[in-house]
TrEMBL record:
<dbReference type="InterPro" id="IPR024088">
    <property type="entry name" value="Tyr-tRNA-ligase_bac-type"/>
</dbReference>
<keyword id="KW-0067">ATP-binding</keyword>
<dbReference type="GO" id="GO:0006418">
    <property type="term" value="P:tRNA aminoacylation for protein translation"/>
</dbReference>
<keyword id="KW-0648">Protein biosynthesis</keyword>
<dbReference type="InterPro" id="IPR002305">
    <property type="entry name" value="aa-tRNA-synth_Ic"/>
</dbReference>
<keyword id="KW-0547">Nucleotide-binding</keyword>
<dbReference type="GO" id="GO:0005524">
    <property type="term" value="F:ATP binding"/>
</dbReference>
<protein>
    <recommendedName>
        <fullName>Tyrosine--tRNA ligase</fullName>
    </recommendedName>
</protein>
<keyword id="KW-0436">Ligase</keyword>
<keyword id="KW-0030">Aminoacyl-tRNA synthetase</keyword>
<dbReference type="InterPro" id="IPR014729">
    <property type="entry name" value="Rossmann-like_a/b/a_fold"/>
</dbReference>
<dbReference type="Pfam" id="PF00579">
    <property type="entry name" value="tRNA-synt_1b"/>
</dbReference>
<comment type="similarity">
    <text>Belongs to the class-I aminoacyl-tRNA synthetase family.</text>
</comment>
<dbReference type="GO" id="GO:0004831">
    <property type="term" value="F:tyrosine-tRNA ligase activity"/>
</dbReference>
<dbReference type="InterPro" id="IPR001412">
    <property type="entry name" value="aa-tRNA-synth_I_CS"/>
</dbReference>
Length: 222
């Protein structure tokens, strides 16, 4: 039922009533992080100390010289519709947009073709390139519709940030393997990757981890 419900939200603006409770919220830079976490939108921050000083200063646009920040979230096109599992991440993106910061919803049209070790004991089922393209197109349409309805129904007179929907297939499709390894591979630190519990569990499992999972570890936005 989750996918049809989100499709309906995309088509029928009046169904977005579940967002109205946040319309009157005008958080400061600190409350912008603390209040959503209290509501369950954010599970954790890293480093945790950043919520006390660094992040509030970064997101405080009232300070002299402060400029909008950019926040992104990846959406894997493993299905042809948004679903209830995307709800918290979308609320988080809208939260930052209303605070005046720019957000990017990034569909993983290329990385969906590769392995994904995050939180899984084995690689996800491979999808054909045609299926991934169709799913990515459907997700983009759903995200654009939700963003348009959000802006139309909940504008409060304050300047909002932008909401951009991208697909990483736009730049990965033209990327050659050797060029990628030469320009990007040098920035990967294996220690950081191997320290993740999800990666450790995959390495110890009978299925192991694919090369694609190592290069692009569950990050549709890379």
């Amino acid at each position: 039922m989750a996918a049809p419900m989100l499709r309906r939200l995309c088509r029928v603006p009046q169904s977005l009533v579940w967002l109205r409770g946040s319309r009157a919220v005008r958080p400061g830079a600190r409350g912008m992080l603390v209040a959503p976490r209290a509501r369950g939108l954010f599970k954790e921050f890293f480093p945790e100390s950043g919520t006390k000083t660094e992040l509030p200063e970064l997101f405080d646009r009232r300070r002299a010289g402060s400029s909008p920040q950019t926040v992104y979230c990846g959406f894997d096109p493993t299905g042809d519709s948004l679903h209830v599992g995307h709800l918290l991440t979308l609320l988080g993106l809208f939260h930052f947009q209303r605070a005046g910061h720019n957000v990017i919803a990034l569909v993983g049209g290329s990385t969906a073709l590769l392995g994904d070790p995050s939180g899984r004991t084995k690689g996800r089922e491979a999808l054909s390139a045609k299926c991934v393209r169709a799913n990515a197109h459907a997700l983009r349409r759903g995200l654009e519709a939700l963003a348009a309805n959000h802006a139309r129904l909940f504008a409060d007179g304050r300047p909002w940030g932008s909401f951009t929907v991208l697909d990483n297939a736009a730049w990965f499709q033209e990327q050659h393997l050797v060029d990628f390894l030469a320009t990007v591979g040098g920035h990967f630190r294996m220690g950081t990757l191997l320290s993740r519990l999800s990666v450790q569990s995959r390495l110890k499992s009978p299925e192991g981890m694919s090369l694609g999972g190592v290069l692009l570890p569950g990050a549709p936005g890379l």
